[in-house]
Amino acid sequence: MNLKNLTPIREGSPTCKICEGVGFLLEENVKNSSSGVLVLCSCIGDSCRTCESKGRAPFMVYDDSQNRMMPCVCHNARIELDRVEFLTRKAAIPPRYKYRTLDRMDTTELSFLIAHDWADEIVKKWNELGKSAQGLYLWGGTGSGKTLLACAILNELILRYGLECKYAKINRDFLSTIRDSYQKESELHGMEQTIKKQFTDVEVLVLDDFGANKESDWANSQLYDLIDARYEEEKVTILTSNISLADWKDKAEGRIFSRLMEMTKEIHLDCPDYRLSHSVHGVE
Ligand SMILES: [Zn+2]
Ligand SMILES: [Zn+2]
Q: Where is the AAA+ ATPase domain (predicted)?
């Protein structure tokens, strides 16, 4: 898949019909990979003979005429490709949603279309809105496509702007890791502040399954502190949940509710099981 409309990167040949100048592509239908992989385009790869076999930075070749190491023709394209891969890996986007973008989604369902439009707005207007961009509170039943949309926003922000993003399941990746940091035998022991700082500092954060379980007072106060810290730092947060925003009114004295009201746009994904009708893509 050509990434020309999804990234400003232009390290390929400007006349290349395959990548249209980007320098790399998203190769889909890859064995053992639901997401596909990024590959160097042939307009670059074909002229790279020397450093190709190693495929590792710094992508330099020895130039006889100048008697020194010079960047290979593939250098810049590979650096950019590596950066997109690195940011995607760092964001911990689940494999099935990796590299999924907003441009090829079925938006026939009205509530999904509305959510999709808001997602599109965040992505396309990031440079204008930046810190003032409103986050999203996407809620709906299993298979409504909320996680897919949330991850697609991250994928596009990485491709378009090279932003640092993070995907986290609220229980598994946040609450449980903080609990682990209290355990002497855990490798996370004593790391509570470091974990919290990672969650606060990242530019765009997806919190998946927010409020999926009946939370304890301790958990709710952790959630509030996280939301509040991101509010103070003016960071964009995208939440998915199976409960409405109003359901937070009677939790944590309504503090989570009022913060989220300020920080996010609430959208109810009222779709029939999106996953069933889109089972090839495995949507959740
Ligand atoms: Zn090309
Ligand atoms: Zn090369």
A: 132-275
Least distant ligand from the CA of 74: 2
pLDDT in tens, 222-274: 999 999 999 999 999 999 999 999 999 988 889 999 999 999 999 999 876 65
All domains of the chain in start order, with CATH: 24-91 (no CATH), 95-278 (3.40.50.300)
- Tell me how far the alpha carbon of residue 12 lies from the centroid of ligand 1, in angstroms: 5
| Entry pTM | 0.91
Write the burial class of residue 258 (CB in 10 Å: 0-12 exposed, 13-18 middle, 19+ buried). middle
CA of 58 to the centre of ligand 2 (A): 9
Q: How far is the CA of 97 from the centre of ligand 2 (A)?
A: 30
